[in-house]
């Protein structure tokens, strides 16, 4: 698995996941349960991971839809 993007914005992660699923690219969010440590205030970014073989294609999907790949 390779990290595709990292964000504290759950709407970006949901939109990116939906776009990837539409392109038949499997993805997985990491750090979802960090809210237990942060008290639910959303300061720790979540990571969206894809298979290494799908990473280049996933990057193209993000760029085509103006989703920033950098950190917040």
TrEMBL record:
InterPro entries: DUF2007, N-reg_PII-like_a/b. It holds the Pfam family DUF2007. It comes from the Bacteria. Residues 1-62 form the DUF2007 domain. This is DUF2007 domain-containing protein. It comes from Arenibacterium halophilum.
């Amino acid at each position: 698995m390779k990290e595709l993007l990292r964000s504290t914005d759950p709407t970006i992660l949901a939109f990116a996941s939906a776009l990837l699923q539409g392109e038949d690219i499997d993805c997985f969010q990491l750090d979802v349960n960090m809210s237990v440590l942060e008290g639910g205030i959303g300061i720790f970014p979540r990571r969206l991971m894809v298979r290494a073989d799908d990473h280049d294609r996933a990057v193209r999907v993000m760029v085509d839809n103006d989703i920033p790949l950098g950190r917040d």
